[in-house]
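Exercise: predict the structure of this protein bound to flavin mononucleotide.
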Amino acid sequence: MPSLLHIDTSIRRTSSTTRELSSYFADEWRRDRPDAVYTYRDLAVEPIPHLTSAVRDYIMNPDGDHGATAEERAHVDAVAAEVRNAPIVLLGIPMYNYTIPSTLKAWIDYLVSPTAMVAVGAETGPLRPTEEISSEGSR
Ligand SMILES: Cc1cc2nc3c(=O)[nH]c(=O)nc-3n(C[C@H](O)[C@H](O)[C@H](O)COP(=O)(O)O)c2cc1C
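Solution:
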């Protein structure tokens, strides 16, 4: 079953170049795949909290003595499951101060883990090419 995870990060709700581009891609992709699974996450509206030591301990060893709250664990599990279940990840990313929005960095910090993405000792995991739509300056 084709599946697309679409993530927007622009702080602008209107007149956003990246939102316009990513929604155009998503609409075209879905038009050709009416039965596809589509998941949308808006990190500007519902940001992932910044990484903490407790959350990192949970990411590295979910069964260990981590101290992460149920809400924090739910965020980690949801982010990892969304990426694992979507063969295509579409990211709308404006450039902010020569880098990605901090909301996307927080999402990456919650996502990237040996346990969820790449098995310990393995050289590769389910990480794969990503469709990225970025925007900077007046472009
Ligand atoms: C906080 C902030 C920082 C930005 N920093 C840069 C930058 O370092 N370089 C750049 O070329 N554009 C920068 N821009 C411009 C945005 O990348 C540009 O307006 C982009 O189109 C915004 O995406 P959006 O239209 O989807 O909101 C910045 C904009 C904001 C709001």
